[in-house]
Amino acid sequence: MLPFGVGRSEGRDRDRYRRAALTIACNVCSSGLAFIVLIASVSWTLPYLGQQRFGVWMTFSSLAATLAMLDFGIGNALLNLVAGARANEDPRRIRELITHGVWLLGTVGAICGVFLYVALHIFDLRRIFGHSADAANETLTAATLFLVLTCLNIPLGGVKRVCHGLQRGWEQHIVSSVGYLISLPLLYWSCMRHASIPWLLCVTYGIQICMSSCLVFRLNRQGLLGAISGAGRATMWCDSKKILSMGSMFFGLQVGVMCASGFDALIVAKLLGVAEVAKLAVAQRLFQFLTVGISMLTVPLWGLYADAKARGDTNFLSMTLKLSMLGTGAIAIVTSGSIFAASSWLLSKWVGNHLSIPVALLCAVAVMSVVDAFGNAFGIFLNGVGELKSQLVAVCVSCAVSLSLKFWLVSTFHEVAWVVWATVIASVVSDYCVYLSLFRRRIFAHLSVPDDKGASSA
């Protein structure tokens, strides 16, 4: 509620913070319900699934977020472009971008579905998970269902990004909250009847997909999304090229992040066995309260950064970045340390004696959570201002270091904690070597105020 802005931009600054606060408030509700579902999905399913089947269930859960990259960065590009059109107060342009972008994502989802279906029947899942024939059949069914839901999520994920570009991110979180409220009793009912892994996917991931479709109907009713008209076809190709051009940059970032940390579960399953995936999944989910909380604070700022960049409000960019970095860093250090200190008690109440988590793994995930918090806050700023090239270089460095260290350290020491430490080391190396050394002046130029001579001062 503090008066961050001055002069003619004061009203816009306050309105941005108001929208961010509303989005964060709804995100708190949504993420709180998601955290309850997450805890329940572990404590209710682990006793009857066993470590191996539970490891498969957690592998699919981990890949759900990772495979969101199959939109090839189009969703993120759409966010920035819609935010820019909103800053220019051009309703017709907003409708064109949203319509063309969502239809483009629908096409991408259909193409990905075909390729993933073929790939699913080429690879032998028994070689990956080491299962018997019966268990492999269940895993194949679950993988097929997971594939369908993932492809449906591609255009629906773009619709969610559009909400953030319109600075109405709270709509997405309200819909998600309703989905979690529906999932929780269904999950309990399923676990009481020892439901299979495909059914567990339906009552969790599937419910969220169904609820996300409500956003499509809402945009359509508001006249922001519809069929492509004859006049719209003339600009669709131009818009598609623009969206794909920016999206390819975001896609490069997504691929790098996926290679650096998204395949941890598969690496552990291959090198140490699927039972170790359960330990990694539980340790990561224990600290997910922190990572989700940090995302609640930072993600709503993406659209605000893009809007401020389009309007040239450098004062807002500078002040918000400082508050974001300092706030998320302090929260991450205190919260991560508290969770680590109470981890023994929390795990005893959560999973009981069904699973033993090494202290070294908990320590690694605690440090990783703090590193992620700083990186998340800074990355959201870079995304919002369209600073993508420096991020691509940083991600390439991080990916090369991370993958090399993971295979070497895990193979050498045979401890699951090293897969997390490798990510920590790679993140620190890429941040200091790339951002602070190579692109420091370029990044700070976004926060500069032009002087009378056309130059800029930081």
What would you note in describing this structure?
The protein is an all-alpha fold and 458 residues long. It has one domain (8-451). Helices cover 82% and strands 1% of the residues. The chain has 19 helices and 2 strands. The chain has helices at 10-43, 46-66, 74-87, 91-122, 125-129, 133-165, 169-192, 197-221, 230-262, 264-271, 274-286, 288-298, 300-311, 314-341, 343-350, 359-384, 389-413, 417-435, 440-444, and strands spanning 449-450, 456-457. Strands 1-2 form a two-stranded antiparallel ribbon. It is globular. The model is unreliable at 1-7 and 451-458 (pLDDT under 50). It holds the Pfam family MatE. This is Polysaccharide biosynthesis protein. It is found in: Cell membrane. The chain crosses the membrane at residues 21-44, 56-81, 102-120, 140-158, 196-217, 250-274, 286-305, 326-347, 359-385, 416-438.
Spell the H/E element sequence: HHHHHHHHHHHHHHHHHHHEE
The largest β sheet comes out as: 2 strands, antiparallel
Specify the overall morphology.
globular
The oligomeric state is single chain
Describe the strand arrangement of the main beta sheet, using strand numbers.
Answer: 1-2
User: Can you give the mean pLDDT?
Assistant: 81
Number of domains: 1
